[in-house]
Amino acid sequence: MGDVRIGLIGYGYWGPNLARNVSALAGDGVELAAIADRDAAQRMRAREAFPGVEVVEDGMALIQRPDVDAVVIATPVGSHHALARAALMAGKHVMVEKPLAATVAEAEELVTLADQKGLVLMVGHVFEYSDAVEYMKEVVDSGELGEILYIRSLRVNLGLYQRDINVLWDLAPHDLSIVNFLLGNEPQAVSAVGRAHVTPGVEDIVNLNLHYESSPLVTVVVSWLDPRKIREMTVIGSRKMLVYDDVSAIEKIKIFDKGVDRPSSYSSFGEFHYSYRYGDIVTPMIRIREPLSTECQHFVDCIRHGKSPRSDGHSGARVVRGLSAAQLSLQRDGAMVRLDDPAVRTVSGRIGTLSVESTA
Ligand SMILES: NC(=O)c1ccc[n+]([C@@H]2O[C@H](COP(=O)([O-])OP(=O)(O)OC[C@H]3O[C@@H](n4cnc5c(N)ncnc54)[C@H](O)[C@@H]3O)[C@@H](O)[C@H]2O)c1
Predict the structure, then answer these.
(1) Per-residue pLDDT tens for 325-348?
(2) Does the pLDDT of residue 360 top 50, yes or no?
(3) What domains, with CATH codes, occur in the chain?
(4) How far, in Å, is the centroid of ligand 1 from the Cα of 236?
(5) Residue 114 forms beta bridges with which residues?
(6) What number does the ligand 1 atom closest to the CA of 169 have?
(7) Got the DSSP string for 79-145?
(8) Whose Cα sits closest to atom 32 in ligand 1?
(9) Which residue puts its alpha carbon closest to atom 21 of ligand 1?
(10) Ligand 1 centre from 97 Cα, in Å?
(11) Residue 77 Cβ contacting ligand 1 at under 6 Å
(12) What is the pTM (predicted TM-score) of this model?
């Protein structure tokens, strides 16, 4: 099978990580064919890091190159739809950084287009390619934790402040994609409250409640205004509890045999005692690879074998739907918003166009 030639658009903060991982696949018949960035300083950095790769200014021109089979898009969210659409129209497979698009309508249009053209559309939900998250999914699916009662996720640190989106659209795509992946579902309803402390009108702290049909309540806190970097998800089951700490180098997952039971029957208050279980704490040995490397390899495998990616366009659209519902809830002071509310389709994550248009 011939080489898969990949063009990268966007060489800012995240693009260099994608360039490094794509070029690391060279021995596997993958070529980093070209890099585009509209910023001259970023182009200079790209040329220094990848002297053999052509570096150009215009992302749209990169898309049209005949020596590019697939395009990876690592630009700000406001440009995802236009670039991904142009790439699909040009017959190129596409991997877009998270979130897939700034509105549900944009995301759905990309999904339809990719289906019509028979092209791979993948979104960079990088944590779905993390060995620790995959392990956590196996534990949840095995029933070891019992019935999942609730999940709490904390994703906070100082910055990095974004100019075109608030903290919800920057960080919560990760939590939504992980929890949707774990539960094999998307939330039915969402409520969110947030505050903008540093940039007026741009929330830098958001507390999110996600309601899933299978009943577990999921609480997510995302913040750019916190002294420590915390990436922690706690899954509380009826039998055991699991803590996933992505910042920990070697102990990413801990399973606690802890819980609390009510007496099955009692006839007087004196007989009523909760019993607390304090069992073993297990830290499984997990082989940890760089998730972005697994993600890039998966993109190439899907192109070669005509497979649908784990984080395909549908998965990307589900995350955008959750973000849009949360954005609408922020605008409605924390009111519960159902994901099937028609107004959700009209919300945009782009700063400056954070508005709900009339659906009448
Ligand atoms: N998976 C992760 O953990 C992770 C982490 C950081 C960022 N991201 C995602 O990566 C994307 C980029 O984020 P970032 O922090 O690198 O942004 P950034 O602003 O640092 O970089 C974006 C780059 O794209 C360039 N660009 C914008 N439009 C362009 C166009 N039309 N043609 C060519 N170049 C263009 C800009 O000049 C800039 O250098 C976002 O979608 C973000 O959510 C993902």
Answers:
(1) 999 999 999 999 999 999 999 899
(2) no
(3) 4-125+291-310 (3.40.50.720), 128-290+321-342 (3.30.360.10)
(4) 35
(5) none
(6) 43
(7) GHHHHHHHHHHTT-EEEEESSS-SSHHHHHHHHHHHHHHT--EEEE-GGGG-HHHHHHHHHHHHTTT
(8) 59
(9) 12
(10) 8
(11) yes
(12) 0.94
DSSP state of 46: H
Q: Which of 292, 289, 305, 300 is nearest to 27 (CA)?
A: 300
CA distance 287 to 34: 32
| Residue 173, Cβ density class (10 Å: 0-12 exposed, 13-18 middle, ≥19 buried) | buried
Q: Which residue has the higher pLDDT, 201 or 255?
A: 255
Structure tokens at 147: 């019935």
With a 6 Å cutoff on the Cβ, whether 13 touches ligand 1 is yes
Measured from the Cβ of residue 5, the count of other Cβ atoms closer than 10 Å reads: 18
Which residue, by CA, sits nearest to atom 2 of ligand 1? 126
pLDDT reading at 268 higher than 80 = no
pLDDT of residue 357: 36
| Ligand 1 pocket member 161 (CB < 6 A) | no
Residue 6, φ and ψ in degrees, nearest 5: -110, 135
Closest residue CA from atom 39 of ligand 1 = 12
- For residue 169, the 8-state DSSP code is H
11 CA from centroid of ligand 1 (Å): 7
CA-wise closest residue to 85 among 65, 100, 67: 100
Tell me which residues are annotated as active site.
98
